[in-house]
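dumping the sequnces here before i forget
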Amino acid sequence: MDFLRPASWQEALAAKAEHPAAVPIAGGTDVMVEINFDHRRPEHLLDLTRIADLYEWEVGERSVRLGASVPYTKIMENLRAELPGLALASHTVASPQIRNRGGVGGNLGTASPAGDAHPALLAAGAEVEVESVRGSRRIPIDAFFTGVKRNALAADELIKWVHIEKADGPQQFSKVGTRNAMVIAVCAFGLALHPATRTVRTGIGSAAPTPVRAGAAEEFLNAALDEGGFWDNGRIVPPSVVKQFAQLCSGACNPIDDVRGTAAYRRHAVGVMARRTLTWTWESYRGARRLTEGAA
Amino acid sequence: MMRVNVTVNGRPQQADDVWEGESLLYVLRERLGLPGSKNACEQGECGSCTVRLDGVPVCSCLVAAGQAEGREVVTVEGLAQLAGRRTEDGELAPVQQAFIDAGAVQCGFCTPGLLVAADEMLERNPNPSDEDIREALSGNLCRCTGYEKIMDAVRLAAARQQEAV
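..and the predicted 3d for all of it:
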């Protein structure tokens, strides 16, 4: 095994071009487990921890440019206002020790259906900027996950930034597990209200071969909110609409039975989380509206 | 095989013939003679290998040895020194003394990791709530104590730290 230690991003891209099978390692919270358990013996480990760019973030006008290696702890501490869904999801990752090392780039690189960041990214709206010696491109988050632990990266590409849309409304994240810390999601759900476009976006984790959005549920809810004038009148979303939304979210799942839970349980739990997160975010939207009206 | 230079508990150290897939934990225990950090789950679940890497608590089993090159590591063996005390005469860091006084050590296997994690929290947050303590120690498993004595120990260390100010 070779341990490649590029000092710059350009060096890292050159190394990946020369050794396309090299395994990138940053926080090590996935890669080292596989090495410790002898599940993986890559010929080259490509250490990205010397590349300062990957640990930086920049808050822009419409989106946040998040370095691939920014640890979850930093996201929780610094980006709660801009990326509330991702900050909540980050807080559910494993333990402080893991959150101090792991970041969204690695989560995307592993592309596990259970990755905690994924539902939040899907709900917020994001693009993954990847680069190789051939150039860079942005992959929409909806096109990023291509199969169980598979993603849209080419062999010579590395993840550099994740561009995440800044929240324009309330966001929530919910995760089911057997305890609060050190839990791989049995299933997870992210929801973001986007009052600017009058849309709702979702993300489902650990209940299909890849993280997915509940497309039909979003369409149904967008239409129902629009028809009822709910974005303007700020009324409570009728229980029948919430129920239908939750059912459609359950329907978007394609889960399996495994050691963490059964397919039936996952479908059920996703519906429950969909109902709860919609209720929480909508209440918060209504509260914010009342405040604005009160001030006016 | 490679050479790794790393500062451990304030002392520059060098490890030779390190395998590229080796963890920092292995280097500490097997090459540098520092067995305080414990090897248990090797997957970041148990926290018994917790050390500080450039000040930040991490699971040393998940840090590749080469990633520690040129970095500063503090292990449980360095806590007393870090606490500004002399290591001679077996003098302990306040958090270590508090664990003994509160009876927070049973089999002792989880203790080094808990000490490093608790010490870092007390440095950052001198007046922690119970919730803060639970959160800070949520990555450290103990199968003996039921955690209550550990909570007592950290509260005691925090109280003594407050008095000392």
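Chain B touches chain A through 29 residues (CB under 8 Å).
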